[in-house]
Amino acid sequence: MNRQLLALALAGLVSLPALAQVSVGDPWVRATVPQQKVGGAFMQLSSAKPAKLVGVKTPVAGRVELHQMAMEGQTMRMRAVDSIDLPAGQTVNLASGGYHVMLFDLQRQLKEGEQVPLTLTVVDGTGKRETVAVSAPVRPLTYTPQAAR
Questions:
Q1: Which DSSP helix (H) or strand (E) runs through 5?
Q2: Domains of the chain from N-terminus onward
Q3: Helix (H) or strand (E) holding 82
Q4: I need a labelling partner for 38 at 20 to 30 A (CA). Which of 15, 85, 103, 136 fits?
Q5: What is the model's pTM?
Q6: 106 and 35 in contact (C-beta within 8 Å)?
């Protein structure tokens, strides 16, 4: 009986990485001023297998969209995208000036030091959906990540 339990426990440990296909690094949300209704969330995403980020939810916003900023001629434009590709083994940076998460219809001001819960929805190459829960700290309005400085 003990050997069966041990074998079952070890099998469970071996299968854990398959469940955690997408990892999230340095998530954060920019602080807002009173009455501001739009904010942004940023992070680095890595996937063990080819996948796509297809959605994000949070209780602090009425609507959440994936966005991309890109130069069109001499003008920087921002537009909503349906998904963000996550190539296998590569880190995709969601940051100001590129792909990022927009939070619309904020329910309240986001203050430095708070934690914002985010639920990411990812779809792999076979169509399997996975959700990833993230707790993102709220950083100051003037915050710039180390890599971008």
A1: helix 2-19
A2: 26-142 (2.60.40.1890)
A3: none
A4: 85
A5: 0.81
A6: no
